């Protein structure tokens, strides 16, 4: 039996019969338990368990430690009685009891007649559309412009239905729809979809294919997000508009003709987003208004229409209170009708859940709305004129009836592809049959509603504002309070806080308010904290103002110790690193070698103290020196610069730059991406100076990604560190509220990695550095995050980055780098063939295969003369530099003579001259004295290490 099968069978045998109570009280198997029982190495067990989870054979239970059970334990047990579907009991029976006669729509009226605003704000647009469709002989191409969610797709459908009603287009076909954004990253495939292609037109075109222009012959083609069509595609399309013919991709033969009416749509300004030659081919431009530009009467009509669609879907009357209507209308801030529709779906779903026992109607009140929708009432109240205008058309309650005559466009991006109410009804019936009370049922299903809608709109790329991630954690009311506090604090402290203020302070306040409501506030004083407050009197005064602010808003007393925590939080958010960091310059041969490494590291660690210099092979060394010096000056913050180079003359620049600029520079050669990553990580720590970073990098041996040796063979100190459990530290002012919420975010990120070996530890700001040092004795700390950066030699993730989403990726990257041992053991790999391979990539005029032995002997001669052993990286760099000196000599482009050059003063001069003689003998090449200067500098630099 295979290892994976043994593990699966063991889990199945020991968990498939667990009861619900046993699961709730710790049932299931941990990785360690399985490892011990089957005598399989724990890492191998973890690997196979994760594979079994992905394959769906077993289930991973939440919590720490992570436990695994057979998938059969999570299936619903047979019910004691049959649970009838909600649709079966409510909808079908209701239809039998009460038949509502609704007349079918007549062909005498088209969709334009039912369109809200067709006689008002959309009157001109409707007339434009009709004129475009009727214009002889084949109509006019049209461009619909409007913001996201304004109804562009709905309007295009109305044009199509109108053209069918008027016999312009045959009724037995459907409009051809294509969203250019779907293939915006692959222009070739996009144009293939539009124009078609012949066999062999491009890689993968194994057979000929007709495009949409051919399929839309004698029909209408709707091109949404037309601004995503590349310029060459726009040119091909306007040629078709002019001539009615086109060529398939790859076809050089006859042109193909097609009779197509084209309607395009875009959210962008066509003057800037489209070719002017393309825009000129579209004579009809239809501008749709934003929701905010619609008159009050139309806004209410749109709301009633959308409610009617939901009423029809539920087959119940909907009663909605006046304030709920105002909240919904005011909640539309960015997404227009699309946003209104999603908010109405959310409100109706919650109203439906609360009215499950009522077979005739659902009632939507302010209490049923989410905090963000409730905020719409406040938003609307700020515009007194609009509020008064809307109030004219409202009654205390509005009743909405289900109407079969409503047109629902199922191609609408905001239209749910399923009946959410049937899902809610069936799940509620199931939970009720299991014995859950109404409160628990509501809690379960409210979560489901949010997940369904958020997942759907995320898939459909519905935009949310920048604070949407924070509103998932903190109430809008607290966010508003935090913004007020920020203004107050900035004015009092005369200081401009960063964006992380909103995240750190709102999370802290949210946690405090929650604890206060639960009666769980700290009353004991902290002597250490009280002493620290003396140093931050200005921040303490702001904390007292915040205390008063909270009392006015919540009638809630803030204890003195909480004011101290607020003081420390303000101080930590205000602190700046005035000392400056050590800068980094990466310089390497090649057109993009250095910049590529810097790009990777900057993205991974968000480092902005790192610059790059690429040195193409044809670049003169003097030019390279000037470029490196300029970047050193640019990146220096007063604490010196680490110069990371690959080899050759670049490794000699450091001392000269220090002499000319006064900036302390230390050089590390044979640079790799891990070296740059480690340097950036070290410089991110405030207390690290240039010398300590330099010494640390000299000892750095890279990050091993595979455990190629037995950990037991490590030195005792390294073995102890290897065996420590890993931990991530989260920091807030108290260590209770924000830090624990951050912990949940991190644990969610770790959950996606299926790694249960990392502990997340929340800490208070008080004595945080000392506490972390104590924890480091027990844990291998791999990262920190929170409201303040501790003085610890590990990566730090800012709070705002963590909440906005990028931090989760950072955590995955950092954890991924720590999943294997960071070994200090390196297998020596140094051969002539390796040096030869390096040379092939860098030199043009010398033959690496012929000169490698000469260069190898050169190094050996110097080593023997000086009775010295050189490192692997030094030998490779020296070989490459001398190869460059030989090529420059052949091209008569040698290094310039340096003023006051005294080569004979070097301890290595005689050894180098002897080695040069071997080149003279074997290759008949004399190395110039200026080149000797730089060779000697390489040895002198190595000597100083």
Characterization of the model:
The chain is an alpha/beta fold and 945 residues long. The strands form 7 sheets. Strands 4-7-10-3-11 form a 5-stranded parallel sheet. Strand 1 and strand 2 form a beta hairpin. The longest helix has 22 residues, at 438-459. The protein is globular, with a radius of gyration of 36 Å. The two termini are 56 Å apart.
Feature tags:
22 strands, five-stranded parallel beta sheet, alpha/beta
Class from secondary-structure proportions:
alpha/beta
Question: What would you call the quaternary organization?
Answer: single chain
Strand content: 5-15%
Number of helices: 41
The total beta strand count reads: 22
Give the overall shape: globular
Q: How are the SSEs placed, and which strands pair?
A:
Layout: H1 3-15, H2 20-24, H3 31-38, H4 42-55, E1 58-61, E2 67-70, H5 86-97, H6 111-114, H7 123-134, E3 142-145, H8 152-165, E4 176-179, H9 187-195, E5 196-197, E6 209-210, H10 212-215, E7 219-224, H11 231-243, E8 245-246, E9 256-257, E10 260-266, H12 270-273, H13 276-280, E11 284-287, H14 296-314, E12 317-321, H15 322-330, H16 336-354, E13 361-364, H17 371-381, H18 384-391, E14 397-400, H19 420-433, H20 438-459, H21 468-471, H22 476-493, H23 500-517, H24 527-533, H25 537-554, H26 560-574, E15 583-589, H27 593-605, E16 610-615, H28 621-635, E17 641-645, H29 653-661, E18 665-668, H30 673-683, H31 690-699, H32 716-723, E19 726-732, H33 737-753, E20 758-764, H34 768-776, E21 780-786, E22 796-798, H35 799-804, H36 806-818, H37 832-840, H38 848-865, H39 872-890, H40 909-923, H41 929-944
Parallel strand pairs: 3-10, 3-11, 4-7, 7-10, 12-13, 15-16, 15-17, 17-18, 19-20, 19-21, 21-22
Antiparallel strand pairs: 1-2, 5-6, 8-9, 12-14
Helix pairs in contact: 1-4, 3-4, 14-16, 15-17, 16-20, 19-20, 22-23, 22-25, 23-26, 24-26, 25-26, 27-30, 33-36, 37-38, 38-39, 38-40, 39-41
């Amino acid at each position: 039996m295979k290892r994976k099968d043994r593990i699966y069978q063991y889990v199945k045998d020991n968990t498939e019969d667990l009861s619900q109570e046993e699961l709730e009280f710790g049932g299931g198997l941990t990785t360690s338990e399985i490892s011990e029982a089957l005598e399989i190495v724990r890492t191998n067990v973890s690997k196979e368990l994760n594979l079994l989870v992905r394959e769906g054979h077993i289930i991973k239970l939440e919590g720490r430690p992570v436990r695994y059970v057979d998938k059969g334990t999570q299936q619903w047990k047979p019910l004691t009685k049959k649970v009838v579907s909600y649709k079966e009991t409510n909808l079908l029976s209701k239809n039998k009891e009460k038949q509502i006669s609704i007349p079918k729509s007549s062909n005498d009226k088209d969709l334009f007649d039912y369109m809200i605003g067709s006689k008002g704000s959309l009157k001109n647009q409707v007339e434009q559309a009709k004129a475009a469709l009727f214009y002889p002989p084949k109509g006019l191409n049209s461009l619909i412009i409007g913001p996201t969610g304004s109804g562009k797709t709905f309007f295009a459908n109305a044009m199509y239905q109108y053209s069918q009603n008027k016999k312009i287009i045959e009724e037995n076909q459907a409009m051809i729809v294509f969203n250019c954004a779907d293939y915006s990253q692959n222009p070739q495939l996009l144009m293939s979809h539009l124009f078609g292609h012949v066999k062999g037109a491009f890689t993968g075109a194994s057979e000929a294919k007709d495009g949409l222009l051919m399929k839309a012959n004698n029909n209408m083609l709707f091109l949404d997000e037309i601004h995503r069509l590349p310029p060459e595609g726009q040119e091909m399309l306007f040629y078709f508009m002019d001539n009615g013919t086109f060529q398939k991709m790859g076809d050089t033969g006859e042109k193909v003709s097609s009779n197509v009416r084209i309607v395009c749509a875009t959210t962008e300004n066509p003057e800037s987003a489209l070719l002017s030659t393309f825009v000129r081919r579209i004579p009809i431009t239809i501008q749709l208004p934003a929701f905010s530009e619609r008159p009050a009467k139309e806004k209410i009509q749109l709301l009633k229409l959308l409610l009617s669609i939901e009423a029809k879907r539920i087959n119940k009357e909907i009663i909605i209170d006046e304030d709920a209507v105002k909240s919904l209308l005011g909640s539309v801030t960015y997404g227009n009708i699309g946003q209104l529709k999603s908010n109405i779906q959310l409100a109706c779903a919650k109203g439906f859940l609360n009215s499950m026992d009522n077979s005739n109607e659902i009632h939507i009140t302010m209490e049923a709305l989410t905090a963000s929708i409730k905020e719409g009432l406040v938003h609307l109240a700020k515009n007194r004129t609009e509020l008064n205008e809307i109030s004219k058309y409202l009654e205390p309650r509005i009743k909405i009836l289900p109407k079969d005559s409503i047109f629902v466009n199922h191609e609408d991006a905001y239209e749910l592809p399923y009946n959410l109410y049937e899902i809610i009804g069936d799940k509620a019936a199931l939970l009720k049959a299991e014995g859950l009370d109404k409160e628990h049922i509501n809690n379960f299903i409210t979560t489901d509603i949010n997940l369904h809608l958020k997942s759907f709109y995320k898939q459909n790329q519905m935009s949310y504002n920048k604070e949407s991630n924070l509103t998932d954690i903190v109430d809008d009311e607290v966010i508003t309070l935090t913004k007020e506090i920020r203004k107050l604090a900035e004015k009092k402290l005369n200081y401009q806080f960063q964006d992380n203020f909103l995240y750190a302070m709102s999370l802290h306040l949210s946690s405090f308010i929650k604890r206060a409501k639960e009666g769980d506030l700290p009353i004991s004083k902290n002597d250490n904290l009280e002493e620290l407050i003396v140093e931050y009197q200005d921040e303490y005064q702001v904390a007292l103002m915040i205390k008063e602010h909270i009392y006015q808003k919540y009638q809630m007393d803030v204890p003195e110790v909480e004011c101290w925590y607020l003081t420390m939080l303000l101080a930590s958010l205000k602190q700046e690193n005035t000392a400056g960091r050590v800068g980094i310059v990466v310089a390497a041969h090649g057109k993009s070698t250095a910049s590529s490494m810097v790009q990777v590291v900057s993205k991974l660690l968000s480092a902005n103290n790192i610059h790059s210099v690429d040195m193409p092979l044809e670049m003169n060394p003097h030019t390279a020196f000037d470029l490196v010096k300029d970047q050193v000056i640019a990146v220096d913050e007063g604490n010196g610069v680490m110069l990371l180079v690959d080899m050759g003359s670049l490794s000699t620049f450091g001392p000269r730059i220090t002499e000319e600029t006064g900036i302390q520079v230390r050089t590390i050669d044979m640079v790799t991406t891990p070296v740059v990553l480690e340097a950036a990580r070290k410089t991110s720590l405030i207390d690290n100076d240039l010398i300590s970073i330099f010494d640390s990098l000299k000892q750095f041996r890279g990050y091993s990604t595979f455990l190629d040796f037995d950990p037991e063979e490590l030195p005792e100190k390294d073995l102890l560190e290897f065996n420590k459990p890993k931990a991530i530290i989260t920091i807030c002012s108290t260590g209770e509220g924000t830090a624990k919420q951050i912990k949940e975010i991190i644990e969610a990120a770790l959950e996606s990695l299926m790694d249960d070996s990392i502990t997340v530890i929340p800490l208070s700001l008080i004595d945080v550095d000392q506490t972390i040092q104590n924890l480091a004795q027990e844990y291998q700390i791999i990262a920190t995050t929170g409201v303040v950066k501790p003085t610890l030699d590990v990566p730090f993730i800012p709070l705002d980055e963590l909440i906005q989403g990028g931090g989760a990726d950072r955590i995955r990257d950092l954890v991924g780098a720590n999943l294997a041992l960071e070994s200090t053991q390196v297998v020596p790999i140094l051969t002539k063939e390796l040096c030869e391979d390096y040379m092939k990539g860098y030199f043009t005029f010398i033959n690496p295969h012929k000169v490698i032995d000469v260069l190898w002997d050169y190094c050996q001669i110097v080593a023997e003369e000086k009775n010295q052993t050189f490192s692997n990286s030094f030998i490779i760099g020296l070989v490459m530099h001398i190869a460059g000196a030989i090529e420059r000599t052949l091209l008569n482009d040698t290094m310039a003579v340096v003023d006051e050059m005294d080569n004979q003063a070097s301890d290595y001069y005689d050894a180098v001259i002897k080695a040069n003689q071997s080149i003279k003998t074997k290759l008949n090449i004399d190395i110039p004295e200026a080149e000797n200067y730089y060779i000697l500098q390489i040895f002198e630099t190595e000597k100083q290490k």
